[in-house]
């Protein structure tokens, strides 16, 4: 009697870890760079939210992402969370920024 073995491929990715941004205060629609580690090497797999709204990822590496701040965020707002997930995985820690009406 022959036996058949099946193997499953399991990919384990570390959870993204955020360390900061290049701006602590920024206006809607502007690009911001997020620094950290464990981002997906294909920047399109990184899903970023700012204040719970999706932010467009413009470019990135495994240690930084450039994203556009959503236009829909109300301003001014203080302590707005920035979070990264990789393809629906667990969320990163949050870093917080300020959204203002004008960027100086």
Explain what the structure shows.
The protein has strands spanning about 15-20, 25, 30-35, 45-50, 55-60, 65-70, 75-85, 95-100. It has one domain: Immunoglobulins (Immunoglobulin-like). With about 100 residues, the chain is mainly β.
CATH topology: Immunoglobulin-like
| Secondary-structure element pattern, one letter each | EEEEEEEE
Mean pLDDT comes to 93
How many β-strand runs? 8
Number of domains: 1
**Name of the CATH first level:** Mainly Beta
**Corresponding CATH superfamily:** Immunoglobulins
Number of helical stretches of at least 4 residues: 0
- Beta-strand portion reads over 45%
Quick one: biggest sheet? Answer: 8 strands, mixed
Give helix % range.
under 10%
The first-to-last residue Cα distance is 75 Å
Identify the strand order in the major beta sheet: 1-3-6-5-4-7-8-2
Low-confidence stretches: none
User: What's the shape?
Assistant: elongated
- Overall CATH architecture: Sandwich
Report the C-alpha radius of gyration, rounded: 17 Å
């Amino acid at each position: 009697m022959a036996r058949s073995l099946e193997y499953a491929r399991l990919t384990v990715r570390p959870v993204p870890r955020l360390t900061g941004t290049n701006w602590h205060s920024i206006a809607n629609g502007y690009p911001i760079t997020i620094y950290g580690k464990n981002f997906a090497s294909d920047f399109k797999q990184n899903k970023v939210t700012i204040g719970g709204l999706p932010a467009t990822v413009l470019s990135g590496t495994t240690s930084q992402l450039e994203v556009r701040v959503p236009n829909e965020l109300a301003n001014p707002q203080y302590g707005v969370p920035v979070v990264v997930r990789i393809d629906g995985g667990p969320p990163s820690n949050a870093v917080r920024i300020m959204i203002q009406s004008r960027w100086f």
